[in-house]
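Re: that backbone. Tokens:
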């Protein structure tokens, strides 16, 4: 046992008990998300909290429909089958008591401004933007959110699969763009089963290089 147990015990939970999550717990979890680092401390995130079951089901419906639509435009049966078979991983939030929508807001940095319209520095500009600091900021916030929730006994699942239905999700919730661009969904709830196996990790020697 180490004091990093709060990290090792988190796992993606895809089935939830039909049990409400108190608002103060949700606020605590989101507060933890906002203590993540953010590029240039711009805190360019926003969180929608949906507890309305009907709305969550409506979102699951549009995600499921879009999923099938994509499967049906596949050029071959293998891709179509593969796409269809993963549907359940795109709608795991459908029975969660809470769904958090995580948005990224525009990120402003002076090097973007300097390089943006200078054709001769296009490569340099591409290097700068490809690290996507604003998106990394959202990842840091979501990870804090997941760890806080796990530490408080809740299950979560970081989800970007449903982003293929971003436009339809906006229609369901009436989003007009002011909160930024939707980047991820995170269902939260009491896990139906916390004893599910945790996917194995690659050995450290495969992912770490010490450079002298
Ligand atoms: C950026 C990101 C997107 C993910 N999107 C989905 C998703 O759409 N659906 C899903 O079921 N799991 C999703 N996951 C969860 C991963 O499948 C999961 O983290 C991975 O299998 C490792 O399992 P663990 O979280 O239990 O350690 C996502 C994880 C990350 C980091």
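Recovered sequence:
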């Amino acid at each position: 046992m180490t004091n990093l147990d709060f990290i090792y015990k988190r796992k993606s939970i895809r089935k939830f008990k039909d049990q409400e999550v108190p608002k103060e717990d949700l606020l605590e979890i989101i507060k933890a998300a906002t203590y993540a680092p953010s590029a240039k401390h711009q805190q360019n995130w926003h969180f929608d909290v949906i507890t309305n079951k009907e709305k969550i089901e409506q979102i699951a419906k549009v995600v499921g429909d879009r999923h099938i639509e994509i499967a049906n435009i596949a050029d071959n049966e293998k891709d179509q089958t593969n796409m269809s078979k993963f549907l359940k991983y795109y709608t795991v939030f459908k029975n969660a008591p809470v769904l958090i929508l995580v948005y990224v807001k525009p990120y402003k940095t002076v090097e973007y401004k300097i390089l943006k319209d200078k054709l001769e520095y296009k490569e340099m500009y591409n290097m700068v933007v490809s690290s996507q600091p604003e998106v990394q900021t959202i990842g840091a916030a979501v990870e804090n959110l997941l760890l806080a929730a796990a530490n408080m006994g809740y299950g979560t699942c970081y989800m970007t699969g449903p982003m293929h239905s971003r436009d339809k999700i906006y229609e369901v919730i009436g989003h007009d763009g002011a909160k930024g661009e939707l980047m991820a969904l995170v269902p939260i709830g009491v896990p139906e089963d916390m004893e599910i196996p945790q996917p194995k990790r690659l050995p450290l020697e495969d992912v770490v290089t010490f450079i002298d």
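The chain is about 45% helix and 10% strand. The radius of gyration is 19 Å.
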